[in-house]
Amino acid sequence: MLFAVASCCESVIACRVSPIQKALLLKMVRKYVAPTPTTLAIGDGANDVGMIQEAHIGIGISGLEGQQAVNASDFAIAQFRFLEPLLLIHGRWNFMRMSKAVLFFFYKNAALVGSIIVFSSQSLHSGNPLYDSWIIAVFNFVGASLPVVFMAIFDRDLPREYILQNPEVYKSGPCNEYLSVRMTLRWAFITIIQVLVIYHFSAPALQLGGGATSAFKGLMGNFDREVGDGEGGDMKVFGTTIYSQLIFVVTMKSLIHGEFPTFTCRRGKGEGWPHRLGYTWIGVSWFSIIFYIWFLYMYMLIGRRGVGTFFSFIYVTPHVLNMRSITWMVSILVPTIACILDVAGKLYSNLYYPTQSQIHAEIAAKEGTQKNPA
């Protein structure tokens, strides 16, 4: 009876209720409302502990009634007025960031495994590994993880002021715009396309002229040989080159999906330089690529100075980075082609099937241009 009456109202005020009754009211909402809502409870005293623990999200206010509510809560704030920025700004931003991080990390690992599956179909399922075992093991450490981590910490799709002026943008979270079925399928589809592009565009180029003298060593070293010097590469060179294309594509994709590449901002303009520094994707992405190249050199030195000449990777890094011009050609063309397809799909989706967040982002960008004309 109580639920039937309460469900007909927009707001319900319950007065003089005990702590157990507060918890029971919240439990009733969780049990009978369909679809099951995400509930939030906020309180400042010991009487609110049961309600805070019963809710999906509990917020405690530190005040004169002690710290019991704060100790039992998921989030603590000093005053009730801080609830608005906690939900509208930080809650929305963090949901967007975590959604992107989940999609990116699934994408990264699916692309790595997908390239191995494609190679397996080309090698008659012999079980021969495409990549060196150690570079597979460190993929999530050196494999373009840094831009993704920075995106998961600093990315933001709408300015703070615009969110406070348009609180309806909060609906993007409850509507699950960032982790919807359509968004997940789009990421899965582009993952398959990019894996096929990376492998099938790289493999024919790397398989041609296996014993020919490379352009870098032949031209820059002024060598003139009738017999090739064998710099075409073996399986490790072949696999490491494709591995490099995979890292370059993931890094470029983080640039494409980063909402605010504000590397040209000035101090004191907008939200300020310190707040924008964290998501300056250009610098982060270049540092990630440089770190990967440094890792290849360090891995090579392990074989030269530690393990010995039987450590086969000592020949891979010079061939991949220094001696083979085809590697640099592939490193420019293949990531560009793979990311052009990603940009085309993103553009088509934004033009014909935009989400509410994308529409608000365009409005916010237009308003920002009008306020700060060039």
From TrEMBL:
User: GO MF terms on file?
Assistant: ATP binding; ATP hydrolysis activity; ATPase-coupled intramembrane lipid transporter activity; metal ion binding
Q: Pfam families from the xrefs?
A: PhoLip_ATPase_C (PF16212)
InterPro entries noted in UniProt: ATPase_P-typ_TM_dom_sf, HAD-like_sf, HAD_sf, P_typ_ATPase, P_typ_ATPase_c
Q: Could you tell me what this protein is called?
A: P-type ATPase C-terminal domain-containing protein
- This chain's source organism reads Thalassiosira oceanica
Q: Which UniProt keywords apply?
A: Magnesium, Membrane, Metal-binding, Transmembrane, Transmembrane helix
The terms describing its cellular component in GO are: plasma membrane
Q: Does the keyword Magnesium apply?
A: yes
User: Where does the sequence pass through the membrane?
Assistant: 101-121, 133-154, 187-206, 237-256, 277-302, 326-344
Q: Where in the cell is it found?
A: Membrane
Q: Which residues form the P-type ATPase C-terminal domain?
A: 70-355
Q: How does it sit in the membrane?
A: Multi-pass membrane protein
